[in-house]
């Protein structure tokens, strides 16, 4: 089994946390209060229409580094995750139907 170095673990954990914070920040910016809709477009609620344009832009700007950071963290720990499953002898069917 290939062990991860502690620097790699720390980097992956930090990158994953920062990526999650970027996603969470973008989601928080897109929150709205009034879910009632008017007009022909049922999905365009009053709360969504009232969100200022700068919030949309900032949420999209936060999404890109969130994807990069979170994705790189997952790629960094992928061998660690799969090696641990092989060591324990867990099959794919046990993961989903246990």
Give the tags.
elongated, 98 residues
Summarize the structure.
This protein is mostly helical. The protein has one domain. Helix content is 70%, strand content 0%.
Helix-strand string = HHHH
The tally of structural domains comes to 1
Helix proportion? over 70%
Question: Compute the gyration radius: what is it?
Answer: 20 Å
Structural class: mainly alpha
Q: Categorize the overall geometry.
A: elongated
Please render the helix and strand layout as text.
Layout: H1 6-29, H2 46-49, H3 53-88, H4 92-96
Q: In words, what does this structure look like?
A:
The protein is mostly helical and 98 residues long. The chain has one domain. The protein contains 4 helices and no strands. Helix 1 packs antiparallel against helix 3. It is elongated and about 55 Å long. The protein starts with 5 loop residues before the first helix and ends with a helix. The relative contact order is 0.19.
